[in-house]
Amino acid sequence: MRRRWNKPVAILATLAMAGSLLAGCGSSKETTSGESAAAPAETTAEAGGEEAAAPVEAEEVSYPLAEGGSLTYWLQLNPNVSANFTNLGDTELGKSWIANTGVDIEFQHPASGQESEQFNLIVADGNFPDIMEWQWVNNYPGGPEKAIDDGVIIALNDVIDQYCPNLKKYLAENPDIDRMIKTDEGHYFAFPFIRGEKGLCYTVGGFIRQDWLDQVGMEVPTTVDEWHTVLTAFKDELGATAPLCFDWSNFGKSNPIAFAYGVGTSSSNFILDENGEVKFYAAQDGYKDYLMTLNQWYNEGLIDRDLATLNGDQVTSKMTTDQAGASVGWAASRMQVMMTTAQAENPDYLLVPTPTPTLNAGETPIYGYIENQFPDVGAAITTSCENVELAAKFLDYGYTEEGHNLFNFGTEGVSYNWDGDYAVYTEEITANPEGWPIAQALGKYIRANYNGPFVQDINYLQEYLQLPTAKECPDVWAVETASDHTMPPVTPTQDESSELATIQNELKTYVDEMTLKFVFGTESFDNWDTYIQTLNDLGLARAIEIEEAALERYNAR
């Protein structure tokens, strides 16, 4: 945004190799005081044990690049784009990205639903595109360091030093982010997608029909008991057949009730307890209490009977046809879509966000949904790239002021206009002449509503959330201490990776099966000790040991 985003300049400070904050979205856990946020960046020579050259200052770069050139770029085509385009290069975003950088890009996309399969085929073939965008931490066996060792992608330390003044500056100013996008060995591996502010990390939460609350004379629930009372009223007084309705596959472990019991998790199966120790979410005492609550609600008809098999479209249907009164999901693609749909028939229909509940009135939530500022999406330069300098400068564009505005807002005068320092989407987005939903309209012009090599701006979210109560979601869903209990993007060693994956797969299969049995009452809670013993027999202690070691290495980055 204007005056909030620094223009590209030559950078005097070098990248931090050890940040001062425990990452996690807005974490406040400090390491030793006095750690420098601008320590010299490790070079490739240093990583290999050779004598390191003096750090190189990144040269100033002007766009479009005078030298030009062409590159191949492999990435998944987001559904917001693929609904109307077969290639990112056909969108206004793609055309502007190419024109503004002066680099001719051949975008390559895997078939929808076959992304992992086609990625693996490319890796096995060894003939890589110049740039590959992927989830390198979680979806490459052994993590990004293994991808470097396997000769798939290159370490970017020297590349960023020499050719990327904008990303280099951002990382030097944000040591917590800097720590997230390097390996334990100190190698930068990708040009990252970064959520620029903590408010962008509160993406999921509960919401409830305010018009129904008004009818039963109740307030928005703030405790688990109040939730029970409200859902009962929706069932008994308003005839709701599924008072609480959400798709378990997406939100079984990330819904507000789970967080009330201290066992919710945003992504990883491991959480940090109040002492900062690594715990497996489904082995905690609170998990049993959580499932006992759901079992009670299920037996009382307060939760959708189809909980195990519901998908998002079915949830939306029930929420917009008076079958359900409360749900869990994303502010824009669920809550806002439901309101827009329902209000066409019922102008009084109103959804409002619900805060993370507590067990007792007056308590402050400790655990809550929050995502990492680096959600493990990054564009890496492969070993097949013959013009690394061009690829680096092309990708660094996303961290310039112009690139920032393009990726977040699109084309000035077409998809947005400035109101002072605030970008306002035009009717091309908010009342699209093609009749496209706002998410698809945005997909033509920006990448902020999914990801890419840039820093996401909260101004985008404030404009994307069109309805007043939807705009309230990030503030209502925020739990200040949530990041203290969320695992940062740690990486096991190459040797540990396959072992951990095997254990985690077995744990997940067993937990998924037993959780629903406990909820539906087909498994007695008298067998809880047997459940815990089975988790231990499947290698839980070893998995925690690996995660603890990875966290220790992460904190030492």
Automatic annotation (TrEMBL):
It comes from the Bacteria. Residues 1-23 form the signal peptide. Residues 26-56 are annotated as: Disordered. SUPFAM superfamilies: Periplasmic binding protein-like II. Keywords: Signal. Residues 30-56 have a biased composition (Low complexity). This is Extracellular solute-binding protein. It comes from Candidatus Eisenbergiella merdavium. The lineage of its organism: Bacteria, Bacillati, Bacillota, Clostridia, Lachnospirales.
